Amino acid sequence: MVNDGILWLEECASTNDEAAARLADPGVRAVAARHQTAGRGRAGRSWHSPTGTGLYLSWIGRPDFSQSLGGLVPLMAAVSVADVCNGLGVSVQLKWPNDVLVNGRKLAGILCEARGTPHAWTVVVGVGLNLHCPPNGFPPEVPGCALSEFTDQALDAETIARSLVRTFSRNLTDMGRSGADIVDAWMQRGIPLGTPIRRGEIEGVFAGLTNEGALRLRTDDGIHEVHAGDVDLLDKVEG
Ligand code: BTN
């Protein structure tokens, strides 16, 4: 059933794949599922997607700007999810590039997948947002948390999905006008400058983002720019 441009499925393998299969359908702005059997995370990880506890949504973005700004889309997505969570009364922090955390625990993950040519491209922005804690807990490899731990507001998946789609659309359009604003918006919602972080074997502190959205890691040797992958927090950050 398509509601406000969102195709709702009872179950699918991955909403990112379902959205990618519908890029040519102008009536579908996003695909959401009650349950995913093979939800995908970043860096080849899987995303635990049980029924009734999470929102699994993939929005189809059709940027009207060149893919040279593509590195900023994951940051835009994180800013958008943060703003929707803030609107629900839950204050979050972003960890580069697009993990959404509360007190160092993961509330939402985002997987962006682009297709096409540099001047005619689409991006599928997949969001897994924890609404409630799963009865059997979160997978041990990722300390998770859920919106219901932090707010008494009603957590209706369809309302939140509509809000995400509206926010993504608005922020993608704004990004085409001024990409640099997204870096500022991310920094306002991100972990503080100076937070101890690690990239592989390299430990240092968070020293901000470049205009292209890369992470700056300061060590005793100087600044390292990180363009892809993840970083880990060395300390728990208070949200
Ligand atoms: C991560 O933090 O590793 C990213 C997780 C992204 C999960 C979402 S759930 C909806 C969409 N469909 C998928 O298969 N993955 C994304």
Give a structural overview.
The chain has 239 residues and is an alpha+beta fold. The chain has four helices and 13 strands. It has helices at 15-20, 73-87, 157-177, 180-189; strands at 2-3, 6-9, 30-33, 54-61, 93-95, 99-102, 105-117, 120-130, 196-199, 202-209, 215-219, 222-226, 232-233. Strands 1-2-3-4-8-7-6-5 form an eight-stranded mixed β-sheet. The protein has a five-stranded antiparallel β-sheet with strand order 12-11-10-9-13, with no helix packed on it. Strand 9 and strand 10 form a beta hairpin. The longest helix is centred in the last third of the chain and has 21 residues, at 157-177. The structure holds biotin. Residues 14-16, 36, 39-42, 45, 47, 56-58, 109-111, 126-128 line the site of biotin.
Topology:
Layout: E1 2-3, E2 6-9, H1 15-20, E3 30-33, E4 54-61, H2 73-87, E5 93-95, E6 99-102, E7 105-117, E8 120-130, H3 157-177, H4 180-189, E9 196-199, E10 202-209, E11 215-219, E12 222-226, E13 232-233
Parallel strand pairs: 2-3
Antiparallel strand pairs: 1-2, 3-4, 4-8, 5-6, 6-7, 7-8, 9-10, 9-13, 10-11, 11-12
Bound molecules: biotin.
Small-molecule binders: biotin
Residue-averaged pLDDT, rounded? Answer: 94
- Class by SSE composition: alpha+beta
How many separate helices? Answer: 4
Helix content: 10-25%
Strand content: 25-35%
Give unreliable regions as ranges.
Answer: none
Q: Identify the overall geometry.
A: globular
Tally of extended strands?
13
Give the spatial strand order of the biggest sheet: 1-2-3-4-8-7-6-5
Q: Main beta sheet, described?
A: 8 strands, mixed
Q: What's the Cα radius of gyration?
A: 17 Å
Sketch the topology as an H/E string, one letter per element: EEHEEHEEEEHHEEEEE
Q: Could you give the distance between the termini?
A: 37 Å
